[in-house]
Amino acid sequence: MVDERAGNTAAARRVAVLTGRGVEVVEYEFRERPNDWVHRDWMRPVRFVYRNIPRGIRMQLKKRLAE
């Protein structure tokens, strides 16, 4: 609740400053980068399994996939 209030106050302050300077208020849009698929929700179980296998096996797998 406190965070929401602070966020709303900051957003209002930002709009006031930008409009006072005569700048158009545009919301930032995040662009998807080529490697963003790694962070998608469906990859979570795969990342979990990969990170929890023994390091030796993980390094062998990494070498094989890099070939």
Average the pLDDT over all residues and give the rounded result.
89
Distance between the termini: 51 Å
Into which percent range does the helicity of residues fall? 55-70%
Domain unit count: 1
Number of strands: 0
Q: Low-confidence segments, ≥5 residues, pLDDT <50?
A: none
What would your notes on this structure say?
With 67 residues, the chain is an all-alpha fold. It has one domain (2-66). The chain contains three helices and no strands. The protein has helices spanning 2-20, 44-52, 55-66.
Key phrases:
67 residues, mainly alpha, elongated
What's this, in brief?
With 67 residues, this protein is mainly alpha-helical.
Task: Set out the fold topology.
Blueprint: H1 2-20, H2 44-52, H3 55-66
